[in-house]
Amino acid sequence: MKYTCLVIEDNIIERDLLEMYLHKINILEIKAICKSAAEAFKILSTTKVDIIFSDIDMPDISGVELLKGLKNPPIFIFITSHLEYAAESFELDVMDFIPKPLSMERLIKSINKAIEHLDLRKQVQTLTSEQKSDPDFFFIKDSKGYARINYEEVIYMESIGDFSKLHTVDGHTYTALINLKNLILQLPGFFVRVHKQYLINFNKILSVSNHEIILESGVNIPLSPSYREELLQLINHRTLNRVAKNLGV
Hints:
It is a single chain. By secondary structure, the protein is α/β, with parallel strands linked by helices. The protein folds into two domains: 3-126, Response regulator (Rossmann fold, 3-Layer(aba) Sandwich); 132-247, CATH 2.40.50.1020. It has seven helices and 15 strands. The protein has a five-stranded parallel β-sheet. A five-stranded antiparallel β-sheet has the order 10-9-8-12-11. Strand 13 (205-208) and strand 14 (212-215) form a beta hairpin. It is elongated and about 60 Å long. It starts with a strand and ends with a helix. Keywords: DNA-binding, Phosphoprotein. Pfam families: LytTR (PF04397), Response_reg (PF00072). Residues 138-237 form the HTH LytTR-type domain. GO terms for molecular function: DNA binding; phosphorelay response regulator activity. Residues 4-115 form the Response regulatory domain.
């Protein structure tokens, strides 16, 4: 199986070097070599790729701006000499940040990390499709193998970089080898994101204030302003539905 990739680099020397390295990695198929983020954006509107190797500081649109503008972005690996972008890159769930000058050894390490992530995502999607007939539970892959967990047992989930930690009603924690961004795609609608670091089980909410949520376990979860409105709308929607049901509407 081959994984598809796209290159974005405005410097011709560094672009040619990256292309040469990637051609030596048989598991990768280069779909396009782009000189700018704008050119890449047009290609991505019609072409799906698994991994994007991109510079950050480019004349038209930066690599970070491109990533923010994509609705369902592929895995991003930034290759740049501008180390000041590293913190912001990881905030955006970037897979890796490679400083220039690029070396083959460092590139291979990053690609292996991306492929491991892609394979894990595929395994999760396969397990999810297999368990559609029984929606009360799901499987996660942890360091010991696969663990079966009932949805209603989960109180909240927190991000720990590329992985996620699940907290259950019996006080157990599980480390899933998948980040929150991809994990939420596999979960039913009563799991909602309330902070870049947290997903909660909506059914476990005891109270909500401007800046925090208290769950049934007594744990306090921070509520980000960017997610507050969405959560309040969901609460109001559930309240209106309950009132309508009680009135027989």
